[in-house]
Design a protein that fits this description.
heterodimer; A: 599 residues; 16 helices; B: 310 residues; mainly alpha; 2 domains
């Protein structure tokens, strides 16, 4: 059955692939395909900066005595301790957690986080690399927080153009290279090196100017324009710090086959299209305490590529996999009911999956018609009946865990067919004998355009049936992604299909900005100079509260204008054997293995 | 020798056709290849134009084809859009998996199909024959991918005897090979059964029996040998089908072979991989058929003469 999260087999513009699994990088998340794609973003900000500056070291993990045992209190010490001389007791701890095999839906395009265009690659590279600063979900559903990574503290200039990081001095790469400011510079310069052919990292980096080495343990990352979203971006996975020695040895593209980082696992083997194995890094002791202390517990972690959805579920049942990623909703439902597996759903950051409403094409050029659509669709019923309760209903333009999410905007509309009917009546649309409304001899007819493999086929059918109850008629067309993109830009549709993974609300820039209509992702053809200005201002605002307030304002405006019909917030779905314990979650709907154990 | 050369000469136009088709793939796809490659990188029109130039898309079609062929003859199949790795390398690294699966399935087909066909053909309308006929009927009627899922549900999910997906072990090859080979064993059973019955009625078998040849000699020396020619030809023809089936089977079992690679590359418009896989699979098909022709020629000298006359 068609499902929104299967990795590849359904002809998705991925990669895969996706998925596949998988493929030409589809920048637009395409969330439905399991968030495997992600975006390359244009970054440009206008001036107008507000001040801010933070020091992170207050974040809890100051120092502790470097305990050689696997005691849970041996936290990441923030740089004061001397470089490790012997990772002596570490392997003992490592052996305890066993081996874990996880089934993933498509083939990674590269193992270089800076070059990849597939979000799925980041799931793997998070095990191999550390960012300067971690950004993790808050405990017990609280607000997301920054945690020290390879940097112990950072400051941001008032105009959000210069980020200064103080680095740990006790970190070594898997190949023995010592981590220092030069490695940070090499990493960021590598992303912008044309030879790297960076896909998502380059866009996520924005208006990068240079990395300045102040001293071996201090770097400045400098942007030519304000770039307030950078802290979120640098933690989102693309900017795991890479070994400059390995980079020099294997070259800008060769590094993707020989990844060397500082992470809790070391690359061991990759058989393209088949499986990838990483081994415990016994020296690892610089992870954030929030993810577990000391080296990882697992001795070995294997990602097995199983594009077929039922293949992953079968392999789970046969005991070959301990974790299966993004099973189809019906299998997840069956797995939960069987009582044999646990289910971890990880909310993802960015926009929800939904339908852009073209504000320039008849009849959705009328705000009353658009608002009627918003009232006519029941997201709760959609997620329950069509998506088997795996995903959650969406009611705004950003998902709730995304900074700048506007809570008030999510209550602007709720399912209310009477209100939809009233709006259409008031706007002069009269129901005919066939139940379809018409005005001035023209039917209330919608063109719905979907793209192959986007996972919208069933949800769109549901939307169509709901809309028909209040007097809409509609025709649905499905095109291959590249063709559909052209049609969306041309504006032949009333309703489209969309969903976008993005670590920072600045992603609004690429899908509601007026200059993204003809060639970008503004498939609502929404042009509002006030919104454009607010987004630009937000990204030039370093202070979190002020910035988020601007984004919230944008979200409320967009929902009032009814330019997007949010449908469901995509959750990363991980079906696990009950023996799997202590996996952590990321903000992009993925999981981390720092503290994971099997058995 | 002459026969060998003639068969070789006949294979060349087919190979030519395969390369032309593979080459044209990039032009038959909707959309500009350069835009497909650059998709998602917010490319400028200049970048697209530059890439078109680099890909040679501005040259005439025959010129582009000759370039493609030239690269092909040097073993260069281009670069995967997805991984930036050499397509030839990625395909060849997956070829062993596909070959192992294909030949295992073929082996299953022969090991099951030939004895059943013989047993059924020797005693037509016996209860054994009826059993074999029922088996072959089912074998032909049940699609291999359905059989694969049934076998997985029973042997992997329920009994947990065999792996459900490939994990590099021989045991993980059993269900794929059996499900893929099963249908072809049924075809072989039917074919050999019919042929044996026919041969048993022929004069030379009667003559052999009249000479006092033992039943096993009649079967093995005479009837089987004459039945083997259509069987070998069929196996050759089925090879292509098994290869195609291997693609689906590979996807179902998560096997990293050429077939699953092709399938995911088609959905992701990874054109160089699709081209390379088409050339490789098409070429493999031609080579296998050539080998079959040569084997048939060796087994049955009449074939060589018949071709010469034709």
């Amino acid at each position: 059955m068609t499902d929104h999260r299967n990795g590849d087999s359904s002809g998705r513009p991925s990669e895969v692939g996706s998925p596949e699994d998988a493929g030409i990088v589809n920048p637009l998340f395409l969330r439905p395909s399991a968030g495997q794609h992600f975006s390359r973003r244009r970054m440009f900000g206008l001036g107008g900066a507000v001040a801010a500056g933070f020091v992170l070291s207050a974040c809890g993990a100051t120092s502790s005595t470097a305990s050689s045992s696997s005691s849970p209190s041996a936290a990441a010490d923030s740089g004061a301790a001397a470089a490790p001389s012997a990772p002596s007791a570490a392997p003992v701890a490592a052996a305890a957690g066993g081996k874990l095999v996880m089934g993933i839906p498509s083939t990674p395009d590269t193992l270089d986080p800076g070059a990849t265009g597939l979000a799925l690659t980041l799931l793997i590279t998070f095990a191999l690399f550390d960012p300067l600063v971690w950004w993790l979900p808050g405990k017990n559903g609280g607000a997301s927080e920054f945690h020290p990574g390879l940097a112990t503290s950072y400051t941001v200039s008032a105009d959000a153009t210069t980020y200064t990081f103080k680095l740990r001095t006790d970190v070594t790469f898997h190949d023995g290279t010592k981590f220092d400011a030069a490695a940070v510079k090499a990493t960021y310069d590598h992303v912008v090196d044309p030879a790297t052919k960076s896909k998502s990292g380059l866009g996520a980096l924005g208006p990068y100017k240079e990395t300045k080495i102040i001293d071996p343990s201090t770097v400045e990352i400098i942007f030519s324009e304000p770039n307030a979203g950078f802290l979120h971006q640098q933690a989102a996975g693309n900017f795991g710090i890479i070994s400059p020695t390995a980079l020099a040895k294997y070259g800008a593209t060769g590094f993707g086959n020989h990844p060397v980082g500082t992470g809790p696992f070391m690359f061991s083997e990759y058989v393209s299209g088949d499986h990838l194995t990483v081994l415990n890094n016994p020296a690892y002791k610089w992870g954030p305490p929030a993810l577990g202390t000391g080296p990882a517990k697992l001795s070995e972690l294997t990602f097995r590529i199983v594009p077929d959805d039922s293949g992953r579920y079968n392999a789970m049942q046969a005991g070959q996999l301990q974790i299966a990623m993004n099973l189809p909703a019906n299998d997840i439902s069956a797995a939960s009911k069987s009582g044999k597996f646990t289910q971890l759903t990880v909310p993802s950051i960015g926009t929800p999956s939904g339908m852009p409403i073209n504000v320039t094409k008849f009849p959705t050029d009328d705000i009353n018609v658009r608002q009627a659509i918003m009232y006519a669709v029941d997201q709760e019923k959609l997620t329950k009946d069509v998506l088997f309760g795996v995903d959650v209903p969406a009611h705004s333009v950003l998902t709730p865990i995304t900074p700048g999410y506007s809570k008030p905007s999510s209550t602007l509309y709720s399912y209310n067919p009477d209100k939809a009917n009233a709006l259409l009546d008031a706007a002069g649309w009269v129901k005919g004998s066939d139940g379809v409304r018409a005005k001035d001899g023209k039917k209330l007819s919608l063109e719905i355009l979907l793209f192959t493999g986007g996972g919208f086929e069933l949800p769109a059918q549901f939307v169509v049936s709901q809309l028909s109850k209040v007097g809409f008629t509609s025709t649905t067309t499905v095109q291959p992604f590249a063709t559909a993109q052209g049609s969306f830009n041309a504006g032949t549709h009333n309703l489209g299909a969309f969903g976008y993974y993005g670590a920072d609300p600045y992603l609004l820039n690429i899908w509601v900005n007026s200059d993204a209509i003809k060639s970008g992702f503004n498939w609502s053809h929404y042009a509002n100079p006030a919104v454009d200005a607010m987004i630009a201002k937000a990204n030039a605002t370093a202070a979190d509260t002020a910035r988020n307030a601007l984004y919230e304002q944008v979200g409320t405006t967009l929902m009032k204008d009814a330019m997007y019909l949010p449908l469901w917030d995509v959750n990363g779905a991980f079906t696990m054997a009950p023996t799997v314990k202590n996996v952590s979650t990321t903000l992009n709907g993925y999981i981390l293995f720092h503290g994971a154990q099997v058995g | 020798m002459d026969y060998v050369l003639r068969r070789l000469a006949a294979a060349l136009p087919v190979l030519f056709g395969i390369t032309v088709l593979a080459f044209l793939l990039i032009h038959l796809m909707p959309g500009d290849p350069a835009q497909i490659i650059l998709f998602g990188s917010n490319s400028t029109p200049e970048q697209i134009a530059g890439l078109r130039q680099q890909l040679g898309l501005n040259d005439s079609l025959p010129r582009q084809y000759l370039d493609f062929l030239g690269q092909l003859l040097h073993g260069n199949l281009g670069t995967s859009y997805l991984t930036q790795n050499s397509v030839a390398h990625e395909l060849l690294s997956r070829a062993p998996s596909t070959l192992v699966l294909t030949f295992s399935a073929l082996a299953v087909a022969i090991v099951i199909g030939v004895p059943l066909g013989l047993a059924a053909g020797v005693r037509p309308n016996s209860s054994l024959d009826r059993l074999c006929r029922g088996f072959s009927f089912l074998g032909v009627a049940i699609p291999y991918f359905f059989l694969a899922l049934v076998l997985v549900l029973f042997f992997s999910v329920k009994l947990q005897w065999l792996p459900a997906i490939d994990d590099g072990t021989v045991s993980s090859l059993i269900i794929p090979a059996v499900s893929l080979g099963w249908g072809y064993s049924a075809i072989l059973t039917r074919l050999i059964r019919g042929k044996i019955i026919q041969e048993y009625r022929s004069d030379y078998v009667k003559a052999a029996r009249a000479h006092g040849a033992s039943e096993s000699r009649v079967l093995m020396r005479h009837a089987l040998r004459n039945s083997s020619i259509p069987a070998i030809t069929t196996i050759g023809l089925q090879f292509g089908n098994i290869l195609t089936g291997a693609a689906i089977t590979e996807v179902i079992f998560g096997r990293a072979g050429i077939g699953s690679f092709l399938a995911t590359s088609i959905t992701s418009k990874n054109i160089p991989v699709v081209q390379g896989a088409v050339v490789l699979i098409g070429g493999g098909y031609v080579v296998i058929n050539l080998i079959i022709d040569l084997i048939v020629g060796a087994v049955d000298p009449r074939t060589r003469l018949a071709t010469a006359v034709a």
